[in-house]
Design brief:
The complex is a heterodimer of chains A (about 230) and B (about 220).
Chain A: E1 2-12, E2 15-23, E3 26-31, H1 38-45, E4 53-59, E5 64-67, H2 80-85, H3 91-98, H4 113-127, E6 131-135, H5 143-155, E7 160-165, E8 176-181, E9 184-190, H6 203-210, H7 220-231
Parallel strand pairs in A: 3-7, 3-8, 5-6, 6-7
Antiparallel strand pairs in A: 1-2, 1-4, 8-9
Helix pairs in contact in A: 3-4
Chain B: H1 4-20, H2 22-35, H3 45-64, H4 69-89, H5 94-139, H6 145-172, H7 189-215
Helix pairs in contact in B: 1-2, 1-4, 1-7, 2-4, 2-7, 3-4
The chains are: A alpha/beta (about 230), B mainly alpha (about 220).
């Protein structure tokens, strides 16, 4: 199972995205500053945009799911329970995972953005598609919920998960790091080797690297452990 | 057309002419082709085509019921084109400027503000329809009567909420009634000539109607 970008070029409103690479099974992190083209890349990978040049090929991918950055853009039903059902899922299971059982009959737009984000994330994790594209999954969430999201991503046993995020504090364990720079997709490679060349790395990783530590992954706990190892 | 006063006046006269007769509609269409600059904005075909389809359907029903469906289709299609041009060519603040110029800083400002909010709302609705379409594709929901009706209701409720939020925001900012705007307009000779020709075209169906009334 993999997704291949073959010399893709996509332009719109003066912005140009270009990139090549293969997203295999595992967890991929595409990082980069706001406006660098992460969401556009997510739409291209989901097949919702067509590149001007190049190809997006999916091999052995039977189901694709993209979670948009703004969860309210994904709402199509008048109540929270019916919104869960609109994903083709049993509402009870979704609401239990999102801890929104009490809000089943509420209007989805009456939820806070964080609650709505939790709802859409719960739907995505329960659906468990082959290719899961998460556009800024940590935005609007508190630290506790961010850690819950990380746990759910890490628990996905199979398939390809691609996270598009500029998150700098709470991150999951990932297999590959990519970066968007001025619309260009740059593959940094597999973790842990890729960490040293990651330009938009969180401050805690940069701190650990500067002190000669070699974190095994990109989580705060990985940086801590690496620092502890060199102190020992 | 740079001067929104002349643009709005021309569109109002031509829309009336189109509504009154097929000849008026054809005249308005010719005017639109000649007077509209190539650089003027226009709505995209994917936005216009569903509207034309709706007019066409109504015309078919009218023709099936013994009415003059073809006349209805021609007149309404031209009005639709005029409205599309007016909407696409109107820049932010122009409706407010024209209303203040016409009715002053109190009533004119309020009318202009409502018009501006309405125009901005149309743009937002268009974006939301696109977003809903995207959400449906992501969820694998097929467009149909069962899905369209609740989605349309959602859109209406969202717009009512947005209007309520804007009203609250205006109140918080101290708005009660009226305001101060000093509108400035740029008018060229070509635009004046185009407006006069629109006015003359507008008289055409009125003259034809008078002939009809004399005959009767």
């Amino acid at each position: 199972m993999r997704v291949e970008l073959g010399e893709v070029v996509f332009g719109r409103d003066g912005f140009c995205l270009r990139g090549s690479g293969t997203f295999g099974e595992g967890v991929h992190l595409v990082s980069g500053p706001v406006g660098s083209g992460k969401s556009t890349l997510a739409l291209l990978l989901a097949g919702l945009l067509t590149p001007d040049r190049g190809t997006v090929r999916r091999q052995d991918v039977k189901s694709v799911l993209l979670l948009l950055q703004f969860p309210e853009h994904q709402v199509t039903a008048p109540t929270v329970a019916r919104e869960a059902a609109s994903w083709g899922l049993a509402p009870d299971e979704v609401l239990a995972l999102a801890e929104l059982e009490e809000r089943a009959d509420d209007d989805p737009f009456h939820l806070s953005r964080g609650e709505l984000k939790r709802l859409t994330l719960a739907c995505a994790f329960i659906k468990c598609p082959d290719l899961l594209l998460l556009d800024e999954p940590f935005s609007s969430l508190d630290c506790e919920t961010k850690r819950w999201v990380c746990g759910m991503i890490e628990e996905r046993g199979s398939g390809t998960t691609i996270i598009f995020s500029h998150e700098q504090s709470v991150l999951p364990r990932v297999d590959t790091i990519w970066e968007m720079e001025d619309g260009a997709l740059i593959g940094r490679g597999s973790v842990p080797g890729a960490i040293s060349s990651w330009r938009h790395a969180p401050a805690y990783l940069t701190y650990a690297l500067e002190r000669g530590a070699q974190p095994e992954n990109i989580r705060l706990s990985d940086a801590r452990e690496a620092l502890c190892r060199i102190r020992d | 057309m740079q001067d929104p006063r002349l643009r709005f006046l021309s569109i109002a006269v031509l829309s009336l002419a189109s509504f009154l007769s097929v000849w008026g509609a054809l005249g308005a269409l010719v005017w639109l082709v000649v007077a509209r600059r190539r650089t003027d904005a226009m709505l995209q075909p994917r936005v216009l085509l569903p509207l034309f389809a709706m007019v066409g359907l109504t015309a078919l029903v009218s023709a099936w019921g013994g009415g003059n469906g073809l006349s209805y289709f021609i007149r309404m299609s031209v009005i639709l084109l005029l409205a599309a041009w007016a909407y696409a060519a109107t820049a932010e603040g122009e409706a407010l400027a024209v209303a203040v110029w016409a009715f002053g800083n109190r009533a004119g400002f309020d009318i202009g503000l409502i018009a501006e909010m309405g125009l901005a709302g149309l743009g937002i609705i268009r974006e939301e329809i696109e977003q809903v379409g995207l959400a449906m594709r992501l969820k694998g929901i097929r467009p149909g009567l069962r899905s369209i009706v609740p989605l349309a209701l959602n859109l209406v409720i969202t717009e009512i909420r947005r209007a309520d939020e804007v009203a609250r925001l205006l109140t918080v900012r101290g708005y009660t009634a009226g305001g101060v705007v000093c509108p400035r307009f740029q008018t060229s000779l070509n635009e004046i000539l185009a407006s006069i020709s629109a006015f003359l075209l507008g008289l055409l169906p009125a003259l034809l109607l008078r002939d009809v009334f004399i005959l009767v």
